[in-house]
Write a structure and sequence with these properties.
Shape: globular
Strand content: under 5%
Helix content: 55-70%
Distance between the termini: 18 Å
Structural class: mainly alpha
Low-confidence stretches: 32-38
Largest sheet: none
Radius of gyration: 13 Å
Number of strands: 0
């Protein structure tokens, strides 16, 4: 599924039109083709953030407690520049604005997709549809 289709599902899940950039990012970082085999690009994105020093924040979003915030500069530092630049180009915004928007959206999206405190198995598209 292309990032725009995933973004549309995320828009519906979040209810505020904020999912398109996140969908593009999941497609870029999670790896093209991972969704077709039942994979979950959210795993790849969260792994990138953990490796980028954001493990505590990621755990708070997946866990059942309060979500820790993350800033745009933290997102920009934790993610590969090429992925963030791709997201920005696709969204028609600067990389800084893309990082800020992702920082505002990602904790809420991960929280909604992990209500039991762990990443569910299955395709991300199916998981989003179950939560809508």
């Amino acid at each position: 599924m292309a990032g725009n289709d995933l973004g549309s599902l995320l828009d519906a899940l979040l209810g505020d039109g904020s999912g398109r950039l996140l969908g593009t990012l999941l497609d870029a970082v999670g790896g093209a083709g991972t969704t077709g085999g039942g994979g979950n690009p959210l795993d790849g994105l969260l792994a990138e953030l953990r490796e980028g020093g954001m493990a505590d924040q990621v755990q708070s979003w997946v866990g059942t407690g309060a979500n820790r915030s993350i800033s745009g500069p933290e997102i920009a530092q934790a993610l590969p520049y090429q992925a963030l630049d791709h997201v920005a180009q696709q969204g028609g915004v600067s990389p800084e604005e893309a990082a800020d928007r992702i920082a505002a959206t990602l904790p809420r999206a991960v929280d909604k997709l992990t209500p039991a405190g762990e990443l569910p198995q299955g395709s991300l598209e199916d998981l989003i549809r179950q939560r809508m």
